[in-house]
Design brief:
Strand order of the largest sheet: 7-6-5-3-2-1-20-21
Number of domains: 3
Low-confidence stretches: none
Radius of gyration: 29 Å
CATH superfamily of the largest domain: Ribonuclease Z/Hydroxyacylglutathione hydrolase-like
Number of strands: 26
C-alpha cells in the first residue's frame, strides 16, 4: 500500500446531488483526480426536445493531465451514460467489472463514439496503485450483477463510494454483497463515506427479492392466459425472475423487439442471465403454444417497456397485441416523473381486456437500500466524515438525519451542491470554493449547442405559439412592396380569428409606414416596433404572448 503522506484531499459532485441520475464525483488527492462514475440523466419535462442530459465536465477538460482514471460502479445508464462524451475530450483509462465494461462498450457504440478507449477490467479483489493513493473495490447488491463500491486509500483513511446498493440477506450468488470486506474497510479507517440516498426517506428495510420471486411465481401459476412482462433491459434481476417463474410454470418466453447489443443480450452471452435450454422462443412461434404456456417479455431502456405496452393496448404493435384474458405484469420500477404515463398505460391495458398486476411486490420493490440498510452501511464503515449522494435535496437531508441517528455529529456531515468542493483538512470537512458545473444538453447529434435561451424559446413556443410577420420593402422609394403577411402557428386557429389577424396586420402596416417615412431608419428598429405593437395588441385581445418573429425583405 502507498506510504506517501497526503497533503490535500478534495471531493466534488459534478452531478447526482439535488437530482436523479447524472452521477459523477471527483476525488482529488494531492492533485491527482479520480473520477467516480459518469452518468446521464433523463430530461425533465421542461427540457423540450432534449434527448439526454450529462454533467458539465469542463473542469476535467482543463485538468485532463491530472485525471488518473474513470472508475465505474455498475452498468446502469445513470452511471455510465456520459462516458462516450467524456472520452471524446479526455483520453484516460476506464476501470470497471466485466459486465459493466461490456455495457459501457455497447453504450459507446450506440452513441456513435469512434475514438480510442482504454477499458481495464477489474474484480473486487483488485487493488490498483497510483502515486497518490490506491484504489480497491467491494461487491454490492443492486438490480444488476457486477455492481461494486469503490475505496480510495489515502494516508488519512479511505474515501468510500458505495454506488447504488441495498442489503438483501436472500440475494443469490451473483448479487451477494461483500459485507465482511466492508467491515474490514471500516476497521482500517474510513475518512469519508459517499453513500446512496435514493430511498433515504423510506423507513425500515427494502423488500427482499425472495418475496418478489414468490409473488412473480404465484402470478405465473395463476394467470389463465398469456403473460406480458415489462422490464427495463438493464434490470437484470427482474428479467431473471421472469425466466425462473416461466420455467417453473412450464411456459416459454418470447422477447418482443430487437435487442442487439443491449444489456439483455450482453448479460445472456456473459452468463449473468441464466435461461434453461429451449426456454426462449422466437416471437413467430408463440401461436404454436397454448396461451397459458406463453410469456412475452417486453424490455428496453428509459420508458420503452411502457411505450411497448401502450402500442400493444392500442392494437398497434407489429408483433403482439393485448387481448381478453392476457395478464400484464409491470416488473419495471417506475422512473421518477413517469408515474402519470404509467397510470395512463395501465388504464389502456384494462380497456383492452388485460388483467394488470402492479402490486406491492413486482411493481414497487426498490433496488436501493432503505433507512435501516443505510444505517447498516454507516455502522460498517464508521466514517469520520459523511457525504450523502444520489438523490434530490430532500433525500440528501433525510440521509444526513439517518447519519445523525447513527451517532455522527452535524460537523461531520457535508451535504453538497453541484460543483461545491468539500475539502478535508486539519481534521475538518468544509467548503473550499466551487468549480464549473451544470448540465450539458444532448439534442440529436448536437452536444451542448442547446442552452437556456434555446430552452426558453422552446418553452414559449409550446405555451403560446409563434407569429411570423413578413414585410417586403422598397428602401429606395420608402414604400411597402408586399405584405404585411402574418403567419400563425400554435397561436390561434386562423379561420376562427380572421378579424384579429386583419387588425394585427393593419397595426403592423401603420408601424412600418410610420418608420420608413422618417429620414433615416434601420431594420432592427422597425422589427422591434413591430414586436412591441403586436405584443400589446395581442395580449389585450387574447391574454397570450406568442413569440413574434418579424421578417423584412428588401427589393
Amino acid at each position: 500500500m502507498n506510504n506517501r503522506k497526503n497533503e490535500s484531499i478534495k471531493i466534488t459532485a459534478l452531478g447526482g446531488v439535488g437530482e436523479f441520475g447524472k452521477n459523477m464525483y471527483l476525488v482529488e488527492v494531492d492533485g491527482d483526480i479520480f473520477v467516480l462514475d459518469s452518468g446521464l440523466m433523463i430530461p425533465e419535462n421542461e427540457m423540450f426536445g432534449i434527448d439526454i442530459v450529462i454533467p458539465d465536465f469542463t473542469y476535467l477538460i482543463h485538468n485532463k493531465e491530472r485525471v488518473k482514471g474513470i472508475f465505474l460502479t455498475h452498468g446502469h445508464e445513470d452511471h455510465i451514460g456520459a462516458l462516450s462524451y467524456i472520452l471524446r475530450e479526455i483520453n484516460v483509462p476506464v476501470y470497471g467489472t466485466k459486465l459493466t465494461l461490456a455495457l459501457a462498450k455497447a453504450k459507446l457504440k450506440e452513441q456513435e463514439y469512434k475514438g480510442q478507449f482504454n477499458f481495464i477490467e477489474i474484480h473486487s479483489n483488485n487493488k490498483i496503485e497510483f502515486p497518490s493513493a490506491d484504489v480497491s473495490f467491494f461487491h454490492t447488491t443492486h438490480s444488476i450483477p457486477d455492481s461494486v463500491g469503490i475505496c480510495i486509500h489515502t494516508s488519512e483513511g479511505s474515501i468510500v463510494y458505495t454506488g447504488d446498493f441495498k442489503f438483501d440477506q436472500a440475494a443469490s450468488s451473483l448479487y451477494k454483497p461483500e459485507i465482511g470486506k466492508m467491515a474490514k474497510i471500516g476497521e482500517e479507517g474510513v475518512l469519508c463515506l459517499l453513500s446512496d440516498s435514493t430511498e433515504a426517506e423510506k423507513p425500515g428495510y427494502t423488500q427482499s427479492e425472495a418475496q418478489v420471486v414468490s409473488q412473480v411465481t404465484d402470478a405465473f401459476h395463476n394467470a389463465p392466459g398469456r403473460i406480458i412482462a415489462a422490464s427495463f433491459a438493464s434490470d437484470l434481476i427482474r428479467i431473471q425472475h421472469v425466466f425462473d417463474a416461466a420455467y417453473q410454470s412450464g411456459r416459454k418466453v418470447a422477447v418482443a423487439g430487437k435487442f442487439s447489443q443491449t444489456a439483455f443480450d450482453i448479460a445472456l452471452k456473459l452468463g449473468y442471465l441464466h435461461a434453461q435450454d429451449e426456454l426462449i422462443i422466437p416471437m413467430s412461434q408463440i401461436t404454436e403454444y397454448p396461451d397459458d404456456e406463453v410469456v412475452i417479455l417486453a424490455t428496453g431502456s428509459q420508458g420503452e417497456p411502457i411505450e411497448v405496452l401502450q402500442k400493444m393496448a392500442k392494437q398497434m404493435h407489429k408483433q403482439i397485441n393485448i387481448k381478453q384474458g392476457d395478464t400484464v405484469m409491470l416488473t419495471a420500477s417506475p422512473l421518477r416523473g413517469s408515474e402519470v404515463f404509467i397510470f395512463k398505460t395501465v388504464d389502456m391495458l384494462y380497456r383492452a381486456g388485460a388483467n394488470v398486476i402492479t402490486g406491492k411486490g413486482a411493481f414497487k420493490t426498490s433496488s436501493h437500500g432503505s433507512q435501516e440498510e443505510l444505517k447498516f452501511m454507516i455502522n460498517l464503515m464508521k466514517p469520520k466524515f459523511f457525504i450523502p449522494v444520489h438523490g434530490e435535496y430532500r433525500m440528501l437531508k433525510a440521509h444526513a438525519k439517518v447519519a445523525l441517528e447513527c451517532g455522527l455529529m452535524q460537523e461531520q456531515i457535508f451535504i453538497p451542491e453541484k460543483g461545491e468542493i468539500a475539502e478535508i483538512k486539519e481534521g475538518r470537512i468544509r467548503p473550499a470554493g466551487r468549480i464549473l458545473s451544470g448540465n450539458i444538453l444532448i439534442d440529436g447529434s448536437g452536444i451542448g449547442d442547446v442552452g437556456n435561451i434555446v430552452l426558453r424559446d422552446r418553452k414559449l413556443l409550446s405555451q403560446d405559439g409563434i407569429l411570423l410577420v413578413v414585410v417586403t420593402l422598397n428602401k429606395k422609394e420608402k414604400v411597402i412592396s408586399a405584405g404585411p403577411e402574418i403567419i400563425s402557428r400554435g397561436f390561434v386557429y386562423v379561420r376562427e380569428s380572421e378579424q384579429l389577424l386583419v387588425e394585427a396586420t393593419k397595426k403592423v402596416r401603420e408601424v412600418v409606414e410610420k418608420s420608413i417615412s422618417k429620414e433615416t431608419f434601420d431594420w432592427s428598429g422597425i422589427k422591434q416596433d413591430m414586436r412591441d405593437v403586436l405584443n400589446q395588441y395581442l395580449y389585450e385581445k387574447t391574454k397570450r404572448r406568442p413569440m413574434i418573429l418579424p421578417i423584412i425583405m428588401e427589393v
